[in-house]
């Protein structure tokens, strides 16, 4: 299996849209706060499939200095995508990361996170951050495994969107040592 992660090109946009980023929700995070530290346990939920219907303008991540897009290929087949940008707080923010459902559990997500870290370090940023939701328990466990720390949450971010009204936004940070 040949894996390649390379910068996103305009010709890739149609191929990226075919990546199946859906995932099975089987648990939600139940948050707790003690001494300024956010922790969580998971609670099972009735399983369902969640699919993001985002129509990010992928072209915005090609050929600009403060954003980047990367395509992960396995034997020339699109297997994952990473979109990131420089955030106002001097962190790189992962705007989108997705691994195709057929290629999960093969290390692709870790390779994409490592690419984000490399990109952030090359820009002398403070670290990498991202936002996900409390119903993406598998991703949260993955981010924690990659060294990210849950630093914040917002119970109101999705309240105006009927399909996501019950979700809590979670903010994960990986801070580089000086």
Automatic annotation (TrEMBL):
Keywords attached to this entry: Acyltransferase, Ribonucleoprotein, Ribosomal protein, Transferase
Q: Give start-end of the signal peptide.
A: none
GO MF term list? acyltransferase activity, transferring groups other than amino-acyl groups
Q: Report the GO terms under cellular component.
A: ribosome
Is the keyword NADP in the record? no
Keyword presence, DNA-binding = no
Q: Which residues form the N-acetyltransferase domain?
A: 3-168
- What is the protein named? Ribosomal protein S18 acetylase RimI-like enzyme
Tell me the organism.
Answer: Phyllobacterium myrsinacearum
